Amino acid sequence: MFLATAVAGPVALAAAATAAGANPALNTFLTNSGVSPSRIPASVLAQGGTSLSCGILDSIRSEETVSVRDGNVYVTEREAHWSAVAWDSPTCIFTPNTTDHVRFAVGLLKVTGTKYAVRSGGHSPHEDFASIKNGVLISMTGIKDVTYDATSETARLGMGIRWGDVYAALDKYDRGLSHRSNEYGWAADNVQNFEIVLADGELTNANATSKSDLFWALKGGQNNFGVVTHITTRAIPSPSQLWGGLLLFNGSQQDAVISAYAKYQEKGQLDKKSALIADLVLSNDTLALTLVYFGPTEKPAAFEAFYGIPSVRDTTKLHSTFIDIISEGLPNNIPRWSYGYTNLGLDEKTYVDVLNICKEQGKKLADVNGGTLVVNAQPISKSMVTYSSNTGGNPLGLTPRAQLWLNVSFGWNLESDDAKIFALIDETIAKVEALTKARNLYDPFIFLNDAFKNQKVFQSWGADNFAKLKAVSAKYDPSGVFQHQVPGGFKLV
Questions:
Q1: In the predicted model, is pLDDT for residue 253 greater than 60?
Q2: At what angle do helices 254-266 and 348-362 cross, to 10 degrees?
Q3: What is the pLDDT of residue 22?
Q4: 411 close to 334: Cβ distance less than 8 angstroms
Q5: What's the mean pLDDT in 151-170?
Q6: pLDDT digits (tens, 9 = 90+) for 164-215
Q7: For residue range 416-455, what is the model confidence (pLDDT) as tens digits?
Q8: Distance in angstroms (rounded) separating the CA atoms of residues 140 and 116
Q9: Which residues, in sequence order, are CB contacts of 291 under 8 Å at separation 6+?
Q10: What is the average pLDDT value for the chain, to the nearest integer?
């Protein structure tokens, strides 16, 4: 682990006590945490910053702390992101197994002034967002419990769990979460409680009746307020049968497919049991649609616009579980990914033109090793937006209308092409937005999960919401730990 800790003799214990005494704030923190400063080797206490923090974590929680010297164990944790762009080199990685261990780490890092990052599932592909160079990475992979409560019809989820494991755990109760936004609103709007560790290590709960301002802010505010250890969320009943699967089209059908997208939004999406996700791989002329209908209806009318388009593969059928449907997908062997986002109002012709702009941009990947362009187009219904008013609202500031959330994802093989790809992301988003602004269809909202690293996410949610988020941050983190000591992610400063 980070440091080899020998059994301390009287001289070493005395030296440790002296070293701890030289840092009274640290001494007080350790004592209040039930840790005798004498447990920490004097050689560790004599250090500062990140080395001090990693040394203490290793001394107290050696089984949860790894560093470069731990070889493959460290590498596996370091590279536990789906995109290699996000791989950093933290001085040590701390993987707490309990909420109390999270509290200890967060409190310690505040006292020592150490910069750190927190990683849950590692969704973001951006450098330094869920990892850090020369700091501490708190990996939440050790906190992955799932508990279902039949009385309240809610599930309590540890923030280190992956969604596939959540679906599997809830399936035996005929419950689910994903692809239900058209009927039940955003996932964040179904959260009933956030269990969160604040900057000083305090554990608290935020919900509709306690710390409601923090509850509101956490429905989108990312890592600006604390470390969420668990959420309690509504677990939605799943039908005994549902229909869906993968529809695969050749790129020659691009205009027809995206036109059908608009027609689905205009009419089919009004059936709230329907859901649609697309992976439009423009760089190799493959258009993949995942269709889901939460009911025992074969070929539901909601997706009628797609049925007449010749496909090269159709796996749609009745299923007994949602997991069966989402287990299908396209293979991905590209290591490096990044993406940017834009939003536009519903308009069939503009949808077609936007995809053709992206297609032209993809041609610029000709000299990029492994260059790949995937457009993830998410059709957003008015009902998805308005549902949040039933659950106390959220900070997103969305316009209540049908819209298209466009994620433009680029994949490539070599780090030497990073700068070119990043510039291409900016350029592609700018070209799309020039068109949508000219047609009065541009929507300034930026979806945080799909945003490029330089996009102004929180500012796009409206001046009032941005100001309120900043006020909540100042109230619960007055020292600004999550603005400065946790530098990754989209910040409020």
A1: yes
A2: 140
A3: 64
A4: yes
A5: 95
A6: 899 999 989 999 888 899 999 999 999 999 999 999 999 999 999 999 999 9
A7: 999 999 999 999 999 999 999 999 999 999 999 999 999 9
A8: 13
A9: 243, 244, 245, 247, 274, 275, 276, 303, 306, 316
A10: 93
How far apart CA 285 and CA 12 sit, in angstroms, is 67
The predicted pLDDT at position 215 comes to: 97
d(CA 408, CA 340): 5
For residue 402, give the amino acid letter.
Answer: A
SS3 for the chain is CCCCCCCCCHHHHHHHHHHHHCCHHHHHHHHHCCCCHHHCCHHHHCCCHHHHHHHHHHHHCHHHEEEHHHCHHHHHHHCCCCCHHHCCCCCEEECCCCHHHHHHHHHHHHHHCCCEEEECCCCCCCCCCCCCCCCEEEEHHHCCCEEEECCCCEEEEECCCCHHHHHHHHHCCCEECCCCHHHHCCCHHHEEEEEEECCCCCEEEEECCCCHHHHHHHCCCCCCCCEEEEEEEECEECCCCEEEEEEEEEHHHHHHHHHHHHHHHHCHHHCCCEEEEEEEEHHHCEEEEEEEECCCCCCCHHHHHHHCCCCCEECCEEECCHHHHHCCCCCCCCCEEEEEEEEEECCHHHHHHHHHHHHHHHHHHCCCCCCEEEEEEEEECHHHHHHHHHHCCCCCCCCCCCEEEEEEEEEECCHHHHHHHHHHHHHHHHHHHHHHHHCCCEECCCCHHHCCCCCCCHHHHCHHHHHHHHHHHHHHCCCCHHHHHCCCCCCCC
Q: Is 32 exposed, middle or buried (0-12, 13-18, 19+ CB in 10 A)?
A: exposed
Q: Which residue has the tokens 């957003």?
A: 380
Q: Which residue has the tokens 């993968």?
A: 246
- pLDDT number for residue 140: 97
How many C-beta atoms lie closer than 10 Å to residue 453's C-beta? 19
The structure's pTM equals 0.93
List pLDDT tens digits, range 356-388: 999 999 999 999 999 999 999 999 999 999 988
Q: Find, among 431, 405, 176, the residue nearest to 277 by Cα.
A: 405
Return the bridge partners of 373, or none.
410
CA 493/CA 487 separation, integer angstroms: 11
Q: What are phi and psi of 138, to 5 degrees?
A: -95, 110
Percent of the chain with pLDDT over 70: 95
